[in-house]
Fold this sequence. Notes:
Layout: H1 6-21, H2 26-34, H3 40-51, H4 55-62, H5 66-71, H6 78-87, H7 99-113, H8 120-131, H9 135-145, H10 154-170, H11 185-200
Helix pairs in contact: 1-2, 1-3, 2-3, 2-6, 7-9, 7-10, 9-10, 10-11
Amino acid sequence: MASGGADAIEALGAAAGERLRAGAAPGAVCGELAARTRWWWDAALGVGRALGIPEPELLDRLRRDPGEVQGELGPGEEELYGELMEELGVFDVAARLDERELLIAERLRAAVRAMGGVASGHAQALSRRLVTGEPAWVFHSLARSGPRSSCGRPAEFWEALVEAGELLAAGGGDECEGECGHGDLAQALGECRARLADCARPDRSGLGRA
């Protein structure tokens, strides 16, 4: 792909490091650097380098050709480009998870698989929050969404979510830091347990019987 070369990317990476240490957001830094070069992907590479994210990982997160993305924008839209890169999760820094947190993430992913389908925007948000280490946000979001009635697997979904919620509770707090806005963990976990119990009850309606 077109690039200003290794020296240019190294210089952009150094500039990105200074701005990030000053407290600037990665997307904003990318937009600033993109205004300095014809090759906007070099700006993204510079930010990624400053964050310690290798190029293959950046490309995997972008899931598109960088030149194609730039081609959809025009001169003067460098700030928008940086915002897009951040929104797509290109600059997300993976959290270092301990054994309990890894188990929580695995159970939450199991719940996602049992949902029976997730809207693309919601799926991206869930994936990003798991990468950046925000399992409580994912738990509350899934508890509010529930499995799809037509093709989800409710018993599997609620069982996985209950297990994740219990592991979260074992950590001694909601761990949502007031950001998720979905309410109390204990209350949400209680509701998930009730849903799981409903799944275990026999059908008393008589429907489907011979």
